[in-house]
């Protein structure tokens, strides 16, 4: 099982097996069986739980797709780093920008002294 599958499984498990829902069901079942609450309340809690699951799932999938997209971008970046030509170009550009930065610093210092 890869990390994306594991992430999805964990997220789904947290949504479907929500501990708060189970605790509410437990107390409602006890209250219904002792006559404190009407059985209709248990049905309502079950329906509300299913609605919450649906809403959470609808929220989850855009997040999950975004996470997969980010991981894909990282993998593409890693592949770029394996390309020696691209590494050479990046090093040349870094050196050029460093040199430009040094020149700008010198010009700035001269201007500060002239003031």
What do these coordinates show?
The protein has 115 residues and is an all-alpha fold. The protein has 2 domains: 3-74; 83-115. The chain contains 4 helices and no strands. α2 runs antiparallel to α3. The longest helix has 43 residues, at 39-81. The chain starts with a helix and ends with a helix. The model has no long low-confidence stretch (mean pLDDT 83).
Determine the N-to-C terminus distance.
66 Å
Oligomer: single chain
User: What share of residues is helical?
Assistant: over 70%
* Large-scale geometry: elongated
Order of helices and strands: HHHH
Please give the largest β-sheet: none
Question: Residue-averaged pLDDT, rounded?
Answer: 83
Counting structural domains, the number is: 2
How many helices? 4
Radius of gyration, CA atoms, in whole angstroms = 29 Å
By DSSP, the count of extended strands is 0
- pLDDT below 50 for ≥5 consecutive residues: which ranges? none
What topology emerges from the helices and strands here?
Blueprint: H1 3-16, H2 19-33, H3 39-81, H4 84-114
Helix pairs in contact: 1-3, 2-3
Main traits of this protein?
4 helices; 115 residues; mainly alpha
